[in-house]
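Predict the structure of Protein phosphatase 1 regulatory subunit 37.
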Amino acid sequence: QTSCLQYLDARNTPLLDASAPFVARALRISSSLVVLHLENTGLSGRPLMLLATALKMNLTLRELYLADNKLNGLQDSAQLGNLLKFNGSLHILDLRNNHLLDSGLAYICEGLKEQRSGLLTLVLWNNQLTHTGMAYLGMTLPHTQSLETLNLGHNPIGNEGVRNLKNGLIGNRSVLRLGLASTKITCEGAVAVAEFIAESPRLLRLDVRENEIKTGGLMALSLALKVNHSLLRLDLDREPKKEAVKSFLETQRALLAEIQNGCKRNFILAKEREEKEQQQQLQQSPSMPDISLTETPEEEPAGSDPAPEHGDEPEATAENGNAPTPPMPEDEEDGDSASSESSSDTDEDVGKDSRDSQRPIPPESRDPGASPGGERRISVSSPGRGRKVFVVTRVEAIPEGSGGDVPAGRENGAVVVPELLNGLKTDFARALPESAPENPGKIGSWAAEHELSCSKNEQELEKLLLEASQDSGSESL
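Done. Here is the predicted structure for Protein phosphatase 1 regulatory subunit 37.
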């Protein structure tokens, strides 16, 4: 009645006729048991019948170990065949060291035909199976779609048994691991095994140790590995088999080395395929650079000033010695010569780095008549094509008749823009007309032209331009 028991090891514990019904009832209603070991418990006869009947309705058990129970090839094998017909949840069935014989294998094969997505591992080690039983198994294997591991070791199968099994293995396409250790096969049987290896696209491991495979069989296996790209492990005896011709011993060692190298090559290829599949999966998923390209940068809110402690990117590049991109609608391709169409160039200094016009004016080049009191600085520029650019740095005091204090951000009724939106810091300020919006962040190249065309300050601007032309010798861009 427990709901947490998953592993039960009852090996070497006799399961008598009196206790078998209670075990069978527990397995019928159990919803948690996954692994059950019942090796050497005397299951042959009625206890196995009760166990198999209960497991037909059990959907949770995955591994069943019934080794060393002297199971016979008649009634016991028939019960196991019925179990495989109705139970599709069992993954491992270990029947090693019993007496199933070829007749018992026929019953088990009848149950294997019904397995579609259940049994993964079947161990028939040491059950006195011969070539006759391999004929039954060879006809059954093409119908099994889930079996991945088949261990037939220590059965006197012989070369004929391997030939009976070969066609069934080729038509199976699901077996990944095959055990044929100590099955009395020779070079003739190794040739049949090599034919299966050459035809198999999925086989991972093959065990043919403790057999009389000599030079001819090793040569067939080596040739098969040259066309097989899936086999990762081929277990062979380390020492060469004795032959009449002594030179064949060296040939056997060379063939063993070739087989080992073939398995290593397949292992490297398998790893490369796995890495390639992982790369393809990564390429199918969106990568960080792809995401960043699709994102649109957030625009700086209009009128917001950049943080002075971080600085602007163009100014940082100017400090590093790299000329920033000029904030003009048309960029110059040649940095050494400047076109007369660019409004950032002057007649006196052709080809001068445009960043010089963006640096603050040093204190010694400022107007000596300017006082740092309550005065403010204004800049007037003429962005005309092919004409001289005048930069007026003139400090004008606030007129006495202005009617009171000038509100913050204004001078003489005009809006003063402390910084430009293009990211370049400057100490110059532009005076906008009264009709300019309260948010000074959204201004473009039209602002300077609008300043000159403003009728309200026309006379004052003409005066300032005249004074600037006279002082142009001492002023620099």
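The CA atoms of residues 125 and 317 lie 77 Å apart.
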